[in-house]
């Protein structure tokens, strides 16, 4: 890259290497050999200078008397030096309209920076320097012929400065893509270079990309677009772009921008252990820009966020990355039943500087809700029990489920698939959930238990257990009913199989009027036939009414309401 136009043509004001008496400054008067960034664009300006300069006789460059320079001479000098810009500061060590360096500025009484002084102050101190040394401090004076002719030649024609734009500086972590366009109006059909500076370090880039939009706007041809990736450092970076004209030192500053580069956090999701409806997640995360500090970790489960701090010891991470601090995390988050989308983020110290560590699908186990149900009733008929009720599984409330009935440990399976609109209305469910089942009983007490069987394996509910009596009715016979005067003699036998060694009562009803007796007479024949013991015979005398009489005999069992009609006979008196 070549130095700027100012650095090539303008004479810098300097106290070192004064010009020899009576002559121009030699090449040794100019500073050279140090790299310089492209200087400002010089433009031909029409400016009426209103500086009032003192007039007097001076001894200049070895005693030759001369009048003070005219306003026109000063304006030409400023135009050559700085483009007549009193506030210019390109960063090359020379300032203001007359391009003073600081040592020369201060040698003539200036304070602060020349480009920050008023126009009047800059004009007055330039005159003061001229009164001390004539035109020798300014090479532009020699170029313009100041002091050698009463009629100054016109300034040399200046090239048209390049035009261009920085469209974007797109930052991505520690790099940026700089793009835009530039062209030189003097050779508008040719591509030129742009120089991209990042924190003072330059990179030359050709404008060799098609930009038909630019061509259309300016009515030019050729390729004038550029795009280049540059490296940034963490934190603030200054990016400046110059368009470099085809004529040496004809350069234009297109733009300078400050951009911030961030280094994203680093991290790892090491493991996930699911227990029912919770997941335990472990891993580590840290922000390289503050590697000694613990940062936050955000976990999202199906879009819902949970914040934790990665502040557990992870000596392995510290050793691998050569960092201090505590950067591990081990957190527990809730899951829903079924598939869950779980994502873990490391949250950097700078706003928006976050890293997606990873996403996984974790299966949460739905909570097991046991079946609900009720055993409404049990009706016993001898050695059979009729059971009724309802049951359903809340996790599949529209489906009918099985009902298991255990009688003294022996199981019987049925489906609860009968309509129970009352149950549906109470619980707000659909389907058929009633049951009405018959199970066999053993004689005597039976332990009967009813279970609702859920859809998930092992998800069963004990609806209830009851003791249900299995009843065998008494047995018996009427052997004879014989009239004896106004009475009848009724004889026979009866016993209760559930207590076959005991004598039971016998009730005789004559036309609805009852008489109670005990069947406690010996009947060896009955014992022999049924293989029982005890006394089970009866012979009962009961009164008769005139006319026809209906005589009925009942065996009364040991269990309440376990009675048997042995028989009925008609007898006339």
UniProtKB/TrEMBL annotation:
Q: Which residues form the Resuscitation-promoting factor core lysozyme-like domain?
A: 70-140
Organism field:
Nakamurella leprariae
Region (Disordered) residue spans: 1-41
**Where are the compositionally biased (Basic and acidic residues) regions?**
1-10
* Record's keyword terms, sorted: Hydrolase
Put simply, this protein is called Transglycosylase family protein
Which family is annotated? Belongs to the transglycosylase family. Rpf subfamily.
Listed GO molecular functions? hydrolase activity
* Comp. bias (Basic residues): 27-40
């Amino acid at each position: 890259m070549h130095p700027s136009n100012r650095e090539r043509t303008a004479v810098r004001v300097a106290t070192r290497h004064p010009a020899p008496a009576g002559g121009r400054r030699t090449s040794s008067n100019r500073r050279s050999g140090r790299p310089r960034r492209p200087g400002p664009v010089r433009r031909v300006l029409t400016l009426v200078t209103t500086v009032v300069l003192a007039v007097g006789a001076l001894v200049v460059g070895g005693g030759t008397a001369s009048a003070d320079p005219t306003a026109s001479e000063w304006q030409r000098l400023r135009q050559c030096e700085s483009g007549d810009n009193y506030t210019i500061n390109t960063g090359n060590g020379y300032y203001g309209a007359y391009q003073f360096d600081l040592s020369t500025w201060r040698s003539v009484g200036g304070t602060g920076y020349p480009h920050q002084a008023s126009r009047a102050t800059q004009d007055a101190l330039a005159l003061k320097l001229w009164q001390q040394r004539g035109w020798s401090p300014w090479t532009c004076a020699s170029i313009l012929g100041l002091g050698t002719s009463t009629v100054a030649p016109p300034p040399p024609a200046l090239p048209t400065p390049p035009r261009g734009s920085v469209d974007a500086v797109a930052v991505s972590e520690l790099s940026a893509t700089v793009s835009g366009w530039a062209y030189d109006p003097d050779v508008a059909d040719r591509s030129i270079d742009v120089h991209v500076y990042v924190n003072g370090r330059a990179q030359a880039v050709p404008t060799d990309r098609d930009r038909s939009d630019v061509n259309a706007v300016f009515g030019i041809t050729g390729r004038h677009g550029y795009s280049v990736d540059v490296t940034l450092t963490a934190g603030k970076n200054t990016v400046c772009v110059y368009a470099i004209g085809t004529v040496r030192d004809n350069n234009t500053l297109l733009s300078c921008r400050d951009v911030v580069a961030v280094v994203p956090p680093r991290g790892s999701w090491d493991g996930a252990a699911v227990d029912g409806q919770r997941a335990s997640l472990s891993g580590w995360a840290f922000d390289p820009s503050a590697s000694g500090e613990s940062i936050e970790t955000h976990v999202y489960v199906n879009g819902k966020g949970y914040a934790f701090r990665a502040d557990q010891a992870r000596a392995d991470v510290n050793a691998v990355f050569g960092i201090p601090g505590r950067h591990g995390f081990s957190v527990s988050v809730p899951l829903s039943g079924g598939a869950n989308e779980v994502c873990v983020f490391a949250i950097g110290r700078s706003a928006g500087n976050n890293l997606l560590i990873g996403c996984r699908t974790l299966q949460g186990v739905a909570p097991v809700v046991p079946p609900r149900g009720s055993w409404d009733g049990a009706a016993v008929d001898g050695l059979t029990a009729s059971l009724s009720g309802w049951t359903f599984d809340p996790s599949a409330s529209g489906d009918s489920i099985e009902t298991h009935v255990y009688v003294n440990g022996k199981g019987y399976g049925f489906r609860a698939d009968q309509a129970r609109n009352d149950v549906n209305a109470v619980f707000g469910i659909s389907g058929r959930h009633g049951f009405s089942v018959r199970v066999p009983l053993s004689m005597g007490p039976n332990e009967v238990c009813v279970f609702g069987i859920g859809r998930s394996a092992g998800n069963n509910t004990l609806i209830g257990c009851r003791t249900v009596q299995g009843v065998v009715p008494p047995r018996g016979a009427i052997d004879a009913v014989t009239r004896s005067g106004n009475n009848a003699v009724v004889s026979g036998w009866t016993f209760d199989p559930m207590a076959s060694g005991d004598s039971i009562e016998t009730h005789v009803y004559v036309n609805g009027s009852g008489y109670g007796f005990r069947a406690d007479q010996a009947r060896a024949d009955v014992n022999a036939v049924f293989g029982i013991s005890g006394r089970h015979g009866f012979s009962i005398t009961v009164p008769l009414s005139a006319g026809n009489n209906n005589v009925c005999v009942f065996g009364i069992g040991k269990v309440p309401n376990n009675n048997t009609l042995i028989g009925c006979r008609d007898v006339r008196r």
